[in-house]
Every structure is written in C-alpha cells, then in structure tokens.
Amino acid sequence: MAQRPPGSSSSVGGAVAIIPARLGSVRFPGKVLADATGMPLIQHVCEAARSAQGVERVVVATDDERVRAAVERFGGEAVMTGEHPNGTSRLAEAAAMLGLEPDRVIVNVQGDEPEIEPRLIDLSVQALIETGAEAATAACPFGPDERHDDPNVVKVVLDGRGMAMYFSRAPIPHRRDDDGAPLARPLRHVGLYVYRRAFLEEYLRLPATPLELTEKLEQLRILEHGRRIAVAVAEGTSVGVDTPEQYAAFVERWRAGGRGGTR
Fold first, then answer.
1. What is the pLDDT of residues 185-233, one digit of tens each?
2. What's the pTM value of the predicted model, to 2 decimals?
C-alpha cells in the first residue's frame, strides 16, 4: 500500500471519495444493485474506496431511492442528487451538498469499479498533490490476456512528465511495424479521477468539446481546454463492469478468491 506523509492529501483534511451511482445503465440496467455475491455491486466499490489510506470519507451520490436505501442498509453514506448528464456534474452537486471546501481533494470513484485497488486511489491522490495538475487519474499496463483493441477499455498515452496526452477507445499507441520490442507500452486507463473541489466547479463551466463528444470520454474536455491530468502508473488488475458478462466474470473471480459461495 502506498504511504503518504501526514496531512498530505489536502490542507483542509483527507480526501473525500464520492461515487456517482445510477440505475439507468444502457448496457447493464440496475448493475450497481446486482448482488450475486451476496452484496450489491455498489457495496464492493464503497469498501474498496474506504480502504484507501488517503480517503477519510466515502459518499454515494445517486438519484434513485433504491440505491440510497441499499447503501444505508450496509451502513454507507448516500446523498440524493437531481438528474445529471454525466457523473462529474452529479459529483459536483454532491460536493456542494456536503459543503466541501474549495481546496478539498475529491476522488471520483466510478460506481462500477468493484475491484478498484485502494493503492491506485492513493497514488492518484499523491500525483495530484505532487504535480500541481488540475486533475489526476491512474493507468495500468495491459495484462497478457487483455485486449488492447477492445473499445470498452479506454487507453491513455503520456508525455515525458507523466501527464496524459490523450485518452481513446481506439488502440493507442498504434504500433506500425512489428519489428521487435515496442518502445511504448499500452496503458489501460483506470476509472477514477482526483481533483480539488474548486477545479471540479471550473470543469462544469467549460464547454463540451469535439473530442469528448466523439469518444464519449468526459476527461478529454480537460485536455482540450489546455488543463493537465497527471497519471499514476502502477500494476493493477482492476476491471470495470459495463456488461452482464463482465459482472459474471467479476462474481466468478470473487468466489474463486474464497470470499463467497453460491447463494
């Protein structure tokens, strides 16, 4: 687990993890409440976020009473928000409802990342603080069995300072010649973002951009407006759940790890 100096996550306290969660997924409706493990998916996400050393509070932001009730049943904290076009705007409303300070570090953990490694959260928080970038995120090298050409898996390329140059659903970087070991290894983006509340409010004032709308990737708005995203790179196996098939694979891994059996 990554270590952090005391008080390093923010001048006003530890980071707050906010998890936007809605039921209206197109590819897998109701996925945040899927409970084949005996726990709703959102509970797995909350427990992972709570395990990060730099996180002092975990809050689920939802517009559905069923999600709020599920979170409160397992002892979690939830706030009810209005309808939003994306998770980032829902995050901003939740931050306002919680009265978070402008300098507070906020971790946006996706509600469909039940296997997010707490270490990646801590490294991303550190990247934000150490670089002074407007936002931070994480990336992992592709594993031997992972497909670099899967459009459901977002890729990222970095500059020499560890800042994101571009995110894409396409396989980047493209290897033109198969003539030896690649000079640049592919990196799989991990679905978490870190920013201070002041930049979160600024982000919402920025107009949507052509690349963002083309790739359907919110983080491209930050890059197209000339802001920086620091990327913490570390080994990791976290895989998001976008489809019923991916959820079934997660359940199988969870059970194989000795953490449950058939219900």
1. 889 999 899 999 999 999 989 999 999 999 999 999 999 999 999 999 9
2. 0.87
Asked, as a colleague might, if the bond just before 173 is cis with ω within 30 of 0, I would say: yes
Tokens describing residue 238: 């976290």
- In which element (H, E) is residue 201 found? helix 197-205
Q: How far apart are CA 69 and CA 190, in angstroms?
A: 28
Question: Which domains can be identified in the chain, with CATH numbers?
Answer: 15-255 (3.90.550.10)
Are 45 and 87 spatial neighbours (Cβ–Cβ below 8 Å)? no
Closest CA to 142 of 182, 194, 113: 182
**Contact 139/232 with Cβ under 8 angstroms?**
yes
Residue reference for tokens 């998770």: 87
For the stretch 208-221, pLDDT in tens is 999 999 999 999 99
Distance CA 173, CA 152 (A): 16
Burial classification of residue 13, based on how many CB atoms lie within 10 Å of its CB (0-12 exposed, 13-18 middle, 19 or more buried): middle
